[in-house]
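[Automated response] Your request has been received and processed.

Submitted sequence:
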Amino acid sequence: MGPDKRASRAGRFKQALLAGDEVAIIAEIKRRSPSRGDLNASLDPAELAVAYRNGGAACLSVLTNQEMFGGSGEDLAAASKASALPVLRKDFIVSVDDVHESHQMGADALLLIVADLATAQLAELHALALSLGMDVLTEVKSESELEAALEAGADVIGVNQREKPKSAAFTMDYQRAERMAPLFPDHVVKVAESGIAVPGGTTMAAVRDAGYDAALIGEALVTSGDPVGRLRELLA
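Generated structure:
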């Protein structure tokens, strides 16, 4: 049996976020969201992934949850093959089986949400993902969640500015990433998530000035009609 081809891809996602001098963009592929409904229901994941690559995205984020986002593992595989960019599987990863499934579908990284996991479980899944050659984007929304992420060994951490709905609507805290930036240790790769570059949202200038290494951007790209041009504008 030959060497594991996945081993040669270990660290690709994290390295890509740190490769340039400017804030890197993780460009997201998603058809819809619970808060906004259909965003780009008929998108072709391979075509959009190539557009993102051509526009200068450092990495991709692909929603694989069918029920809430209209995504699939096939979307991730198609985007990865077409673009050759490192790909984050963005889904609700809560079990060892989910981590192995992410590895099998070809993800270079996966998302772990601190709010959804006990501390011991977070550490277990984080360590398993790394052992399989995947990076981990660990998502937090508060200082206590940041502490839990660091305790679990996380070194790529995203601040999600979206709140869970108190009623029918999701709300955003567009200053959360800026407020939390000073709390991060120097060794951590910092990622701003949700509400970036949308009307009235957090600007790329604010993300850069707060010291973030990367921004995960979905809605502003999938609804733009010109993802190549929009990415180049955001990266300018």
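Summary generated for your ticket: Confidence is low (pLDDT under 50) at residues 1-8. The first strand starts at residue 24 and ends at 29.
If you did not submit this request, please reply to this message.
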